[in-house]
TrEMBL record:
Location of this chain's protein in the cell: Endomembrane system
GO terms classed as biological process: lipid biosynthetic process; membrane lipid metabolic process
Major site of localization recorded for this protein: membrane
Organism per entry: Vitreoscilla filiformis
Protein name, UniProt field: Sterol desaturase
Amino acid sequence: MYIAAEAAGTFGPVGTAYPVYLGSLITVLLLLERWMPMRPDWGMTRTLFFVRDLPMLVVNGAAMVAATHGITWLVGHRVLCSLGASGLPWPVQALIAAALADLAWYGLHRYCHEGRGRLGRWMWRTHVLHHLPEQVYVFMHAAGHPIQSAYVRIVLLLPAIGLGLTPEAAFAAAVFNGFQGLVSHFNVDIRAGWLNRVFIGTELHRFHHSADPAEARNYAAVFSVWDQLFGSYRLPGVAPAALGVPDRTAYPANTQWLQLLALPLRSASPAQRREP
Ligand SMILES: [Zn+2]
């Protein structure tokens, strides 16, 4: 998203059209969620938006900007450099960058859920904020810890930098990733059919948010191919019975922002531990 925002200055009408595209997409998705929610009790409420989603949007937006500036600084000082794939057509570059970033996210995300030992448990505590909501809807996508937002940003940017993408390709990859992120948390009953075998959509990602850890698989964000390849693909055919974590009361409430942000800084209580 930030790349796209930066690119707005470079791409003239196409770049400046991005905020219009994003605003229109979010508006359409929100209207559809109100008109035909899959589960009304999984929908956004005014309280959830103002108490949880909006503050997290602000905090995580700041974390992403900080991570982007950090990486830009490293590139500027030649700590990170490009392998140079700019000779390829830009759609191919965008596809390669999106696939590599999603593979990196798949590995990291799976480690957040299944990693053992001190580091594995700490990674879960940077990620669990995204799993505390007992709903899925478009703006719930913003729920998460700023540490997670920073490493997601790094995972998304490194392939683009490493490959040396042209601005057009980086722009296309950012548009695609942004679309997937919003649509995968959509509270509308969309059946994607065979497309589930290619992309992560609403049906698949909803299971990732199941309160039943056995169902909460589908770790990729964009391409379900990675889940199929590594054995974590789940599409049981009916919606999960409940969303969130097995014991929501073991974690701070939505209004306890400081306690939520402190989760990675404190050791887990017995009820918060994933491991027996
Ligand atoms: Zn997760």
